[in-house]
Specification:
mainly beta; globular; Porin; 2 domains; 3-stranded antiparallel sheet
């Protein structure tokens, strides 16, 4: 047994050890709590960084898409000039030739309709492109020359914000539909284009902003892009617009566009689901009252590996006076490519495109090919008006600066497929309602 002296010493040692252990255990607990707090702070910082990185990546993707929208075939030999007003100016362009042959007779009229047994081969387009960058400041200019007429296609200055947003001021592409060219991959586009609802250029201001999985566009347009030089009074232009052919018709004014697209990127089939709306005034230049127009569209693009299915359904209406020079409120005067034509005032437009992007690394003369099949129709409200359908089957071929379309277009109501109509209103009443076809080859070199 321990004697009393040893017992006292042992008791004292235990007291001292306990006294030393108490602050050590308290310190350890405090260190653990601080470490946990620090880990929590780091996790929050990491989550924030990941979110910022995701936003930056979406912003970069949006910027790349905006660049791609401006030019479907990338210019491979741009000439760059540094230190132009402190920035970089790139100059490029394209020259395109077109061969077409139709199944209609020799005496049906305009050469662009490809009449004759052997078809025709013509110079399609010569264009000059300029792209400017200076830090966050960007700009784009495009001017086009056709056979007998020429015009401004694009001309805007813009600014890229740190959040991925971009503003454009000038003649820019109207945000309507699933992409710059609607659902289409073809040279002919779909019927949305011919009523001014795809690849439409107008004069105004547009703001685009990616936000999470959303991409939002808001735009105000003071007017259409204006007319260039040609034989027509108001139709020497790229976009199909309401034109004042008779000096006392209508002109587009004060148009507002909104578009929202949500991207489902985590699905096996990547999906972009969107809505577009448009409202604008029609400024009367004659005795009739002012008019207005609106359009609304639901659209979706589904991508599975290299296969893309794009669909769109649109409703549009033009409210025009029955006292207009056309003498009816069921037709609207449109124009483009130096050619005026009439369009049904109220209609639905369904459109669908199926395409496949095929890379060809084993073919030395071909980078990739995009076969496609497309259908669209203008389904008109007016009793007695025939619908205007368009079917296109073909492929786009790319190699270096070359971009070539080969396609067969079949239509019972399109101004560019078929001979001259006796009524001149394939997109309006479409009294002919005849199915005709056109085989088309378009050779484009982008420099």
């Amino acid at each position: 047994m321990l004697n009393a002296s040893k017992h006292r010493h042992l008791s004292s040692a235990l007291v001292v050890a306990s006294a030393l252990a108490l602050p050590l255990s308290t310190q350890a607990a405090e260190d653990t709590a601080a470490l946990k707090a620090r880990i929590s702070e780091l996790e929050q910082a990491l989550a924030k960084t990941r979110a910022e990185l995701a936003d930056a990546q979406r912003g970069e993707a949006a910027a790349k898409q905006q660049a791609a929208e401006a030019n479907p075939a990338p210019a491979s030999n741009d000439i760059a000039f540094d230190n132009v007003f402190g920035g970089t100016l790139k100059i490029g362009g394209a020259i395109r030739a077109n061969y077409a042959v139709g199944d209609y007779g020799k005496d049906t009229g305009h050469p662009s309709r490809a009449e004759g047994d052997g078809g025709n081969f013509t110079l399609d387009t010569f264009r000059i492109n300029m792209d400017y960058t200076h830090d966050a400041v960007v700009g784009k200019l495009e001017y086009r020359f056709y056979n007998g007429y020429h015009f401004l296609h694009t001309g805007w200055l813009g600014y890229n914000f740190d959040d991925g947003g971009q503003v454009q001021v000038g003649v820019n592409r109207v945000p309507f539909g699933p992409g710059p060219y609607g659902v289409s991959q073809s040279w002919f586009f779909d019927q949305h284009y011919y009523v001014g609802l795809a690849d439409d250029m107008d004069l105004g201001i547009k703001y685009t902003r990616p936000l999470g999985n959303w991409t939002f566009d808001a735009a105000y347009y003071f007017s259409d892009e204006g007319t260039g030089a040609g034989s027509s009074r108001d139709s020497a232009r790229y976009s199909f617009d309401v034109v004042n052919k008779t000096r006392n018709g209508y002109e587009e004014r004060n148009q507002v566009n909104l578009r929202a697209i949500y991207s489902f990127d985590d699905m096996p089939v990547k999906t972009k689901l969107g809505m577009s709306v448009e409202y604008g005034e029609l400024d009367s230049k004659g005795p009739q009252g002012d008019g207005s127009h609106w359009a609304a569209s639901a659209h979706m693009v589904n991508t599975w590996n290299n296969l893309t299915l794009a669909t769109q359904l649109t409703r549009y209406e033009y409210d025009v006076s029955a006292r207009q020079p056309l003498g009816t409120d069921t037709l609207v005067q449109f124009g483009a490519f130096d050619f005026p034509n009439t369009v049904a005032a109220k209609a639905w437009i369904p459109a669908v495109s199926l395409s496949y992007h095929l890379e060809t690394p084993s073919v030395p003369w071909l980078d990739y090919v995009v076969p496609f099949v497309e259908y669209s129709s203008i389904v008109k409200d007016e009793h007695g008006f025939n619908d205007s359908d368009l079917v296109t089957v073909g492929a786009a071929w790319a190699h270096g600066g070359w971009y070539i379309y080969s396609e067969l277009a079949m239509s019972n109501g399109n101004e560019f497929v078929g001979g001259e109509s006796a009524y001149g209103d394939r997109l309006g009443a479409n009294a002919d309602d005849k199915w005709q076809s056109r085989f088309n080859l378009n050779f484009g070199y982008y420099f």
